[in-house]
């Protein structure tokens, strides 16, 4: 803080003005003016000290500094040099808080100088009013210049994005107290679906949100006879046209958020419904207006979740780099040292012990590298959830030597990114547990996705669940991840032995339909 450019500019501006005002004041040798100059110098030194030591006080200091300068100038309205100090607070305020600070400083100093001037000498004369206006206008101009300088300094400051992010996050934490509906998109989507169902007796209804160049299912409900696939098609049409679509008992309409289309609601009426096309369009149009506030809430939740996911991904990448460049390299170096010692072992027993140590070091290096791959692998870089699972199983199979068979049963429509991410991490954790602890010969993975539902099962032929270790958190983490996306997690020991870990998206929703493309089976041999 001591070396911040804006702080140095503020200090230099005050020092320059004090020198500029001091010349004529000391030349005239008027005692009140000299006292006013001394007061300004003392006040500005105190302000600089507080600004340097307590940056959080800058906003109130802007007002206090301007009010103090106005008070001093108001006592010496007859001295033009003292009135010149009125140009300083708006300039400093522009450096600290931009245009908003300039306006605050001008308001504070004008109120102070007018009130004190009237209190000490009666109504202001025309000359006094003109002098005050002149220096206030000068202060406004300098404040605008300071605002521009502030922007330029922020652009050149590598810490500026962090400061800006800090301000935004602090504001978000403050605002979150008033978010009565929360920020969880699936819950907000469920509220929207309930509102729609109160107005339209639909047999199938879903909410889709934009994801790059296509729509992803947020949440859906379906009764027997409901057709979620046709609802998805109509949602795509309504999104492309950005208007309500109603045809053959199926409807879809976009929800406008604060800045753009945040989601598309689609649904279908049950066969034999008494609601005609005109009545259905009228109800849907009315719903589109009624859901405006809930659309903004949903947009806020989606943005917050996207921010959280981005921050998490960045942190995972950072950890993976640190592990690869730090821990992994250090352990590998220990392995080379063990090799050198083994070559000079004085006895066969020492050579055997060093050989065991070398094997252990090699195993640890393999584990660290596997952890690095786990951290760096994400669904976002893959074409689909199944593709990401195939990628991680292939790597695990190569590093562990255990065959992993993967069966994919996916439809083209994808789940939302955060749902895919949690499902992927659950699968990844189950695979890692099987490789590290199960002592298995084969692992089988079945991935079935038909948005908005999904079911993934990881089965090994190892020793089963076994005794829980005090330092093991994998099972608890998987349950937490499943809870975040409202999924069911089942961990079972099949009759034939081994362990089965299954995660299924909400049980109350329909099971995945038969896929359009052919089922694919991918095998990663030993």
Task: Write out key terms for the chains shown.
disordered C terminus; alpha+beta
**Pairing-aware structural class of the strands and helices?**
alpha+beta
- Low-pLDDT residue intervals, each spanning 5 or more residues: 507-526
Total DSSP helices: 15
Q: Separation of termini?
A: 59 Å
Helix content: 55-70%
Enumerate the strands of the largest sheet in spatial order, edge to edge or round the barrel.
9-10-8-7-6-11
Task: Note the overall shape.
Answer: flat
* Major β-sheet annotation: 6 strands, mixed
If you compute it from the alpha carbons, what radius of gyration comes out, rounded to the nearest whole angstrom? 34 Å
Listing every helix as H and every strand as E from the N terminus to the C terminus, the arrangement reads HHHHHHHHEEHEEEHHHHEHEEHEEE
Strand content: 5-15%
Mean pLDDT score, rounded? 79
Count of beta strands: 11
Description:
This protein is an alpha+beta fold and 526 residues long. 61% of the residues lie in helices and 14% in strands. The chain is built from 15 helices and 11 strands. The strands form 2 sheets. It has a 6-stranded mixed beta sheet, with helices on one face. Helix 3 crosses helix 5 (88-121), helix 12 packs antiparallel against helix 13 and helix 13 (385-400) packs parallel to helix 14. The longest helix has 52 residues, at 292-343. The chain is flat and about 105 Å long. Mean pLDDT is 79; it is low at 507-526.
């Amino acid at each position: 803080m001591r070396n911040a450019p804006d702080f140095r500019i503020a200090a230099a501006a005050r020092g320059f003005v004090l020198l500029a005002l001091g010349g004529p004041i000391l030349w005239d040798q008027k005692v009140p003016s000299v006292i006013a100059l001394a007061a300004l110098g003392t006040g500005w030194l105190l302000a600089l000290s507080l600004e340097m030591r307590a940056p959080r006080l800058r906003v109130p200091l802007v007002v206090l500094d301007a009010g103090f300068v106005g008070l001093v100038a108001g006592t010496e309205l007859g001295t033009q040099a003292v009135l010149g100090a009125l140009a300083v607070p708006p300039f400093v305020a522009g450096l600290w808080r931009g245009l908003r600070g300039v306006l605050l400083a001008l308001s504070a100093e004008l109120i102070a100088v007018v009130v004190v001037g009237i209190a000490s000498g009666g109504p202001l004369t025309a000359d006094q009013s003109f002098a005050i206006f002149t220096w206030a206008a000068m202060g406004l101009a300098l404040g605008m210049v300071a605002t521009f300088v502030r922007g330029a300094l922020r652009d050149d400051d590598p810490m500026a994005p962090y400061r800006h992010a800090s301000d935004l996050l602090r504001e978000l934490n403050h605002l979150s107290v008033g978010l009565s509906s929360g920020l969880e998109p699936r819950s907000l989507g469920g509220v929207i679906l309930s509102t729609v169902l109160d107005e339209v007796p639909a047999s199938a209804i879903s909410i889709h949100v934009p994801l790059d160049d296509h729509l992803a299912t947020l949440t859906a409900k379906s009764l027997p006879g409901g057709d979620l696939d046709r609802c998805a098609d109509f949602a795509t049409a309504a999104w492309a046209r950005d208007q309500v679509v109603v045809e053959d008992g199926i409807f879809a309409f976009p929800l406008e958020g604060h800045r753009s289309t945040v989601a598309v609601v689609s649904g279908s009426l049950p066969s034999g419904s008494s609601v005609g096309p005109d009545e259905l369009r009228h109800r849907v149009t009315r719903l589109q207006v009624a859901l405006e506030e809930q659309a903004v809430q949903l947009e806020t939740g989606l943005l917050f979740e996207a921010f959280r996911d981005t921050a998490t991904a960045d942190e995972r990448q950072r950890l993976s780099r640190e592990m690869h460049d730090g821990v992994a390299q250090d352990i590998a170096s220990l392995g080379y040292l063990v090799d050198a010692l083994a070559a000079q072992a004085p006895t066969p027993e020492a050579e055997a012990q060093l050989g065991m140590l070398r094997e252990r070091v090699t195993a640890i290096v393999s584990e660290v590298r596997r952890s690095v791959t786990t951290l760096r692998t994400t669904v976002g870089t893959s074409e689909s959830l199944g593709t990401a699972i195939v990628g991680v199983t292939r790597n695990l199979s190569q590093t562990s030597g255990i065959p992993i068979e993967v069966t994919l049963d996916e439809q083209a429509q994808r789940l939302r990114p955060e749902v895919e991410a949690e499902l992927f991490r659950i699968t990844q954790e189950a695979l890692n547990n099987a490789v590290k602890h199960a002592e298995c010969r084969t692992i089988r993975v079945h991935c079935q996705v038909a948005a908005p539902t999904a079911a993934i099962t990881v089965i090994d032929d190892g020793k089963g669940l076994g005794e829980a270790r005090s330092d093991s958190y994998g099972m608890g983490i998987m349950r937490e991840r499943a809870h975040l996306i409202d999924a069911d997690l089942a961990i079972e020991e099949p009759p034939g032995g081994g362990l089965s870990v299954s995660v299924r998206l909400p049980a109350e929703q329909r099971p995945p339909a038969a896929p359009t493309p052919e089922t694919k089976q991918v095998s990663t041999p030993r």
